[in-house]
Amino acid sequence: MNSFKIVVFLAVCFSHQALGTFDVFGRAGFFSRCFKPKPPANGKITPEHKNVFYKNQKIWISCGTNYDLVGAKDLKCLGRNKWRPALPKCVPKVVQCEKPKEPRDGFIVPKDEKLFDVGEKIWFKCDRGFDLNGVKDLKCLSNGRWSAPFPRCDRKVVKCERPDEPDNGSIRPDEQDFFDVNEKIWFGCERGFELKGKKDLQCRSNGKWSDKIPRCERKAIKCEKPDEPDNGSIRPDDQDLFDVDEKIWFSCERGFELKGKKDLRCRSNGKWSDRIPRCEPAEAVKCKVPDAPRKGHISPAGQTFFDVRDEIWFGCRVGYFLVGKESRTCLPNGQWSGRNPRCFFKNRHY
């Protein structure tokens, strides 16, 4: 009786292994089993040492370092060697670097991004008056870290260099070559020139002056044409205003001589370089007696020189008559007025 039971048990066991219909405990075999699937590349399945799973049993999938799981992290056996949901994949991790804290007295470019991909760079910059101490640009590495320590911004030791003096101008103070931040310099111009621009500049924290260096430009100064001296004239005579350094010339009428400078220059203060000259009567001016007309005579006779305003008279011999003015006057220029008359024979026909 006992031997019969053993034979039947073995038959049932062999039948389960061959047909997959029943197991030794009477449960459904093939229809309720799932075989362990092949793990995804760069991943593994837990439990690791079990290969056969039954309906509603689970397996867990995980990925190696630097890989992310894409899909479900656990699968359930549905029987008939089917798992649900689908087997996930292991893909390389998307590594990013976080934007570091901005340095004091500085900032980071780009400003708006918070995360950076591998290979991307950031740049550190400092505010005016500060120098960067360290590497100015960093790269995001594949481990999610930056390529170098973060730099810092240190205050500059700033000086402004003394600028060149403007043409026809000066700078105060005049004995200093370098100036500290917030120090000032003052500009001035020579006479006849005026300042175009700021009269004082301040040294800024970037080592530059607060504005452009001013210029000294010639003033728009004019000299008025003076009154002509009595018995004299001025050249040019058609101009009423004269620029700085322009000249005028004086001359006197005949019989007068110039007392003073014959030319004056317009100065940068709008005044002429000297006093206006005068025209005074020429001293010891004489008129030499002219030749008497042919067949005529001059009176008074026997005098060789005559003073200014003296007169002489002309006359003709008997039988002749005078053609022209009978008198001439000695002028202040030493010349006689008019022309000499002539004497013609009375019986001459014209």
TrEMBL record:
Residues 32-92, 95-155, 158-218, 221-281, 285-345 form the Sushi domain. CDD domains: CCP. InterPro entries: SEZ6_CSMD_C4BPB_Regulators, Sushi/SCR/CCP_sf, Sushi_SCR_CCP_dom. The keyword tRNA-binding does not apply. It holds the Pfam family Sushi. The keyword NAD does not apply. Residues 1-20 form the signal peptide. Keywords: Disulfide bond, Repeat, Signal, Sushi. It comes from the Eukaryota. PROSITE patterns: SUSHI. Disulfide bonds join C34-C77, C63-C90, C97-C140, C126-C153, C160-C203, C189-C216, C223-C266, C252-C279, C287-C330, C316-C343. This is Sushi domain-containing protein. It comes from Clavelina lepadiformis.
